[in-house]
Amino acid sequence: xxxxxxxxxxxxxxxxxxxxxxxxxxxxxxxxxxxxxxxxxxxxxxxxxxxxxxxxxxxxxxxxxxxxxxxxxxxxxxxxxxxxxxxxxxxxxxxxxxxxxxxxxxxxxxxxxxxxxxxxxxxxxxxxxxxxxxxxxxxxxxxxxxxxxxxxxxxx
Length: 156
Hints:
By secondary structure, this protein is of the alpha+beta class. It is 33% helix and 22% strand.
């Protein structure tokens, strides 16, 4: 079996051999961009409205499923909350997220607010850049294999 001569390809065939992997890479990146951050498993869970709270009953971190009691003001009324966390001191001020659909009475289950308030989460853009590099690397590998021996050429 005679291998095809690499130099005998037309310019259209060469452009297609480079263009097909490049177009596939661009398509993957565009679809990933349109899918949004959920594609990378980076879901920004809504912690609710941030409110300053004071720890009224701290919990030790050695306990199983520690829950601390906090008090805060919501809508001008003093409220009680249960914070799923540990390690805070008595009367320590913490920022908690209160659900927007919180009940008007009773204890509210609150969550710890984002520890880096005011900063942007860089995981999504970094994941997209890594995806671009992966597509580029795959395309370059395909180009080098096709260009090398000619055995795996897409178009003869």
